[in-house]
Amino acid sequence: MASVPAVLPPLTTAEYKEIYALFLPLCYNREAVFEYIGKCLSQVTSPDESGLHVLIVGPDSYFEQKCQELDQLVNETVDQQQDELNRIQLKITELINEQETTGEDIDLLKSTIHQLELSMNNIEQTWFTINTRPLLIDNKYVLIKKLAEHEFDLSTLSPVYKTIDRSAESVRLLMCNDRYLLMHQHPNLCLFDRELNLVKQTLWSYGEIQDMCWSSTLDRFILLGENNIFLVDENTMSINNVLSIDERDLISCTCSDTVLFASTNERASSIMEFKLLPTIELIGEWKHPLTCDKDETICDIVYNNGNLALMIMNLSEESLPKNSESAVMAASTFV
Q1: Is 58 left (phi over 0), alpha (psi -120 to 50) or beta?
Q2: pLDDT, tens only, 4-14
Q3: How many independent structural domains does the chain possess?
Q4: 202: domain CATH number?
Q5: Extended beta strands in 31-180, E state
Q6: Are residues 311 and 240 in the same domain?
Q7: Which of the pair, 4 or 67, is modelled with greater confidence?
């Protein structure tokens, strides 16, 4: 017949203090464990013998990801110990309140506290193997060189990647989107991929090309003739004359998400404004003196991030140096 455990009277103050004397150091030891883990992680990011520090770039960096993996590995064990601490504390409270406490209850509780103490102490003796390889960076990847003001050193450009032969009759214009490079190789319009391989071409028989730009809104290349606006589909290489402008010569174009801008080829140039959707249609015109002076002409325009930059040429003979065939250039910006 199994023996009945001896029932003890409620815990005395002395017994209560004895159990808590075993339990409380574990709570303080947990804080010491977190401090120890923090020191270990800080050593990972400390400088090496050469004094170089690890560079952490952004919250999603590879380095931070590995630190999080290491932290998670340690926290899994620490969280289990916290659950055990909570269970022991609850058990102590129950024993204090219960009227039927056995000697086995007290011995089991003391044994559990002792085992948990050993487990927490063992964290400092735990080793993690971290295999790393050095990141080799070629010194030529980063070049630092001081240039004089207004100087541009062409020797810093990379070597020629590929050469494309073009005839003298070809228009000297280039335009690209994120997939293709568009250029004119007489007598064709040609599309080249990122490796500069010719992938598509179609006959161009609409006269001089003054300028070209890409519209992400229309998903088309826009080509500017002297009096016409064309759309070119990169998929089919179809060419559509979408608008003719009589008695106005156009010279340069650029576009935003909603508007196409085109400058006129004349003294005191104007900038014509066309909406893109649902069809390309003239909606406004900026004229002299807002665009330029009466003895100036707009050579080129570029739109970017809400700004319209103009390249302006001064045609006045008084403004030119003696025996000079070049014109004075200036840049203006409309916001």
Answers
A1: left
A2: 444 445 555 55
A3: 2
A4: 2.130.10.10
A5: 101-102, 174-176
A6: yes
A7: 67
